[in-house]
Amino acid sequence: MKLKEQVLLILMSSKGKFVSGEEISKQLYVSRNAVWKAINSLRADGFIIDAAQNKGYLLSGGETDDFTRYGILRIRQLLKKSAADADITIKDTVTSTNTLLRTSAENGAPSKTVLIANEQTEGRGRHGKSFYSPADTGIYMSVLLRPDFKADKAFFITAGAAVSVVRAIKKVCGIKAGIKWINDIMLNGKKICGILTEAVTDFESGSLQYAVMGLGINISRPKGGFPSEISDIASSLYSEEAVGNELKCALAAEILNNFFDICERMSVDKLTEEYKSYSVVLGKRIRVISSNAEYYATAVDIDKNARLIVRDENGDMHTLSSAEVSVREGQI
């Protein structure tokens, strides 16, 4: 990492306070003259850095203008041990982070390759649905894994991602979100995040060659609101129409910290229990739409394979591995 990038991270993390040149030089083990040159280089890059005698330097503008270039520095600064070796790329606009990362996987990209975008023009959800991904309002991120387990355990990835997002939202934003089985993160009855895991399986061994976990979080309300076709089901963490890079970086880093820690250290039993603790469907009357049936039921449990166990209105039990569910009253 270049010296000016290290200086920038110190200024970014000072959260609106002056940092003296002496303090920066001590942190980085360089001369104050080297710090001064780095400051001037950052100014040439478009960053607005105030200087005051006996106070030092203050980053007062420009840090939100280039998420693709400097967001990655802030994210890396916030990563913990389990995520520190992730290979992260940030792009301004992509078609789909999942699509691009799958191509990278086919070309031999290693596990823990991460692609983050400010906007998707062809974002995808489950069952071929599109995922609305406008610029400057959310985080769109995909992670490549090459896990050492069978394909029938791929649910672990989606469940781990869901738990990671709920934890991160609570820690960074102080907001308590929930999980709607199997892959939606909910706030006040509306979806604020979707998760899509796509995997390629070795036919002979039954193991996963690789899996790509993608997620999109609506942090702030898009300008003009959500499209009419999703406005009744979609929401965001905040109602404001603008979101700063500091919040985006903090959320992205915390999700990665949680996700890699869960994948590497957490047992299926503990993950299942935590996943269930965030559920917004357990104990509720839900509407189930599967490939061959549509009915009302009560969500009873979630098993260790992340399957939803429900009791229909006739008292019959069903174990669902895939279906659409909604917590709504009324008759079909």
Automatic annotation (TrEMBL):
Q: Which residues cross the membrane?
A: none
Q: Which UniProt keywords apply?
A: ATP-binding, Biotin, DNA-binding, Ligase, Nucleotide-binding, Repressor, Transcription, Transcription regulation
Q: Which family does it belong to?
A: Belongs to the biotin--protein ligase family.
List, for all copies, the residue spans of the domain called BPL/LPL catalytic. 73-263
Q: Where does biotin bind?
A: S96, T97, N98, Q120, R124, G125, R126, K191
Q: What gene name is given for the protein in this entry?
A: birA
What Enzyme Commission number does this protein have?
6.3.4.15
Q: Which PROSITE patterns match?
A: BPL_LPL_CATALYTIC (PS51733)
Q: Does the keyword Nucleotide-binding apply?
A: yes
Give the species this sequence originates from.
[Eubacterium] siraeum V10Sc8a
Q: Which GO terms describe its cellular component?
A: cytoplasm
Q: What is this protein called?
A: Bifunctional ligase/repressor BirA
Q: Give any Pfam family that matches.
A: HTH_11
Q: Which Gene Ontology BP annotations are present? A: protein lipoylation; regulation of DNA-templated transcription
Query: Reaction(s) catalyzed by this protein?
Result: biotin + L-lysyl-[protein] + ATP = N(6)-biotinyl-L-lysyl-[protein] + AMP + diphosphate + H(+)
- InterPro entries per the UniProt record, alphabetical: aa-tRNA-synth_II/BPL/LPL, Bifunct_BirA, Biotin_CoA_COase_ligase, BPL_C, BPL_LPL_catalytic, HTH_11, Transcriptional_repressor_C, WH-like_DNA-bd_sf
